[in-house]
Amino acid sequence: MVFREKTYSVLLVSAVEAFNNTAMTLLPPTDFWPVTVVHSAGEARRRTVDAQFDIVVINSPLPDDHGVRLACDLCDGSGSAVLLLVRRDNFEEAGARALEHGVVTMAKPAPLSSVEQMLRVMCAMRERIVRMEDRRASVDEKIEEIRLVSRAKWLLIERRGMAEAEAHRYIEKKSMDSRLPRRAVAEQIIKELG
Prior knowledge:
Blueprint: E1 8-13, H1 17-25, E2 32-38, H2 41-50, E3 55-59, H3 68-77, E4 81-87, H4 91-99, E5 104-108, H5 112-160, H6 164-178, H7 182-193
Parallel strand pairs: 1-2, 1-3, 3-4, 4-5
């Protein structure tokens, strides 16, 4: 990949040291940093409690889990892009179970060039996830603002006897006059009248 200022944090879950060594050659620090290597599903679960990873690569089977459950749980519980590598004879079954959770499954053994391409796909997935999370946060903030303004309006109606339109205008005017966002004005009204 071309050097970029942004790097992707990686959790590599594999009990096979030879796989880990090979995978590290596909994860240059210019693109993937930090890379954390763990050897079991339990270790992976403990690490993901404290840290968020952009990409998780699981080389199944693991000593304490096949890998499918871990992959599904990580996809469901975080914004990580998850790649599950499974034996060719388990690919169809594992892929079918993991697909509905958003896990990308790849049969192994696979050519290094294919794994490298899949890592680029995982980076693209992570970028998309980040944009979606940002949009959701923006929508959540707007919903919270609407909720606060509505609560402030109802307090003005109940405590000051204003009509709904009058309460709305009051909040808008106070926001413009004080050069504060409607949310801040609503919070002040709630604090005063609540």
